[in-house]
TrEMBL record:
Protein's name in the database: 4-hydroxy-tetrahydrodipicolinate synthase
Catalysed reaction equations from the record: L-aspartate 4-semialdehyde + pyruvate = (2S,4S)-4-hydroxy-2,3,4,5-tetrahydrodipicolinate + H2O + H(+)
Annotated positions binding pyruvate: 45, 204
Keywords: Amino-acid biosynthesis, Cytoplasm, Diaminopimelate biosynthesis, Lyase, Lysine biosynthesis, Schiff base
Active site: 133, 161
SUPFAM superfamilies: Aldolase (SSF51569)
Domain of life: Bacteria
Family in the record: Belongs to the DapA family.
EC number: 4.3.3.7
InterPro entries: Aldolase_TIM, DapA, DapA-like, Schiff_base-form_aldolases_AS, Schiff_base-form_aldolases_CS
Coiled-coil region(s): none
Length: 284
């Protein structure tokens, strides 16, 4: 279900500051036609925290329509810090959502036992499979391979978006002996090629808005064992990701998409600030 490259869509804004739903739909169809296995609505890249309820609903609805047309998976991002609110949001997911990407509760640092209890409770309530979003440099909470393995045993826990800022011992542990029915997706764009080489099922990658076909080929090449092709592609795409992440995501990406005429403005909402022209030019 999760295999391949999933694109966490940016939320483009009109010059008046509204969500540019037409541009969301166009971008969604374009990346799916270029080889993405699915979309993630309301990820960090989509500036979910800066959208109001109506805007979030509009983004989900627009992405759901594109995914339904293309037979692709729509995953919806969720990042509430308490279990009750997250469970409520899961139960309220609209038609068309095929999975939920749920962040490890951030800021609170409930400990690994708390994280396990959180996801176990959510797994009991959720109408769609869960993907655990493990990103300790944003959440402040470590989660080891042993905890992820216990959670992986639940039939409603489908995988993890693994984004620890590098390849660590826990990643090697999980990829070396993957829990059945549980997929590891790379969530750090720079490390997608090495993680695929070690057995990751795919990635959720903001960078894959650009050169989507090559990112999809990268996953296919590693999965097929075509090492020379995969390695060459991986190095080329890592250079693109490094340029896109030179400033806080998705500021550079939006600058590039706008420069290419794919979104109406490069605008981001505060506290994000637009990327510098130099960073955008370096990623073009
Ligand atoms: O929104 C996402 O999903 C992603 N967010 C990450 C981040 O902004 O740190 C980057 C990754 O490419 C996907």
């Amino acid at each position: 279900m999760l295999r391949g490259i999933h694109v966490p869509l940016v939320t483009p804004f009109t010059p008046e500051g509204e969500v540019a739903a037409d541009a969301v739909g166009k971008l969604a169809r374009q990346v799916l036609d270029d080889g993405a296995a699915g979309l993630v609505a309301l990820g960090t890249t989509g500036e979910a925290a800066a959208l109001d309820q109506e805007e979030r609903a509009l983004v989900i609805e627009t992405c759901a329509r594109a995914c339904a047309e293309r037979g692709a998976l729509l995953t919806v991002g969720m990042s509430a810090s308490d279990t009750r609110t997250t469970a409520r949001a899961l139960r309220a997911l609209p038609e068309g959502a095929g999975a939920a990407l749920v962040t490890v509760p951030s800021f609170l640092r409930p400990g690994e036992r708390g994280v396990e209890a959180h996801f176990t409770a959510l797994a009991e309530e959720t109408p769609v499979p869960l993907v655990i979003y493990h990103i300790p440099y944003r959440t402040g909470q470590q989660v080891g391979a042993a905890t992820l393995r216990r959670l992986a045993a639940h039939p409603m826990v489908a995988g993890v978006k693994y984004a620890t800022g590098g390849l660590d011992q826990d990643a090697l542990d999980l990829l070396g002996d993957p829990p059945p029915g549980f997929e590891v997706l790379c969530g750090d764009d720079l490390y997608v090629s090495p993680m695929l080489a070690l057995g990751a099922a795919g990635g959720i990658l903001a960078s894959a808005h650009l050169r989507t076909r090559e990112f999809a080929d990268l996953a296919d090449a590693w999965h097929a064992g075509d090492v020379p092709r995969a390695r060459a592609l991986g190095h080329r795409l890592a250079a693109l990701s490094a340029a896109l992440f030179a400033e806080p995501n998705p500021t550079v990406l939006k600058g590039v998409l706008h420069a290419r005429g794919l979104i109406p403005t490069p605008d981001v909402r505060l506290p994000l600030l637009p990327a510098s022209p130099a960073s955008v030019a370096a990623a073009l």
